[in-house]
Amino acid sequence: MADNTVPSKRDERIAFILLAVLLAPALSVAIVGGYGFIIWMSQLVLGPPTG
């Protein structure tokens, strides 16, 4: 069953708000937090960086 409806301007605006206002910041926080967690865990296992 094919749904060939064309999205309206309102649908596009809602999708943009969802992606730009909610998803992008949440994804950015998750990526930076995940990277920080990886660095933290690697320092617990391998020791602090030597310089």
Provide an overview of this structure:
The chain has one helix spanning 9-46. It is mostly helical. The longest helix is centred in the middle third of the chain and has 38 residues, at 9-46. It is rod-shaped, with a radius of gyration of 20 Å. The mean pLDDT is 92.
Number of helices: 1
Low-confidence stretches: none
Write down how many β-strands occur, each being a DSSP E stretch of 2 or more residues.
Answer: 0
**Gap from first CA to last CA:** 63 Å
Oligomeric form:
single chain
Q: Please give the share of residues in helix.
A: over 70%
Radius of gyration (CA) equals 20 Å
Q: Estimate the mean pLDDT confidence.
A: 92
Structural class: mainly alpha
Biggest sheet record = none
The succession of helices and strands, N to C, reads H
Q: Please indicate the percent range of residues in DSSP E strands (runs of 2 or more).
A: under 5%
Spatial shape: rod-shaped
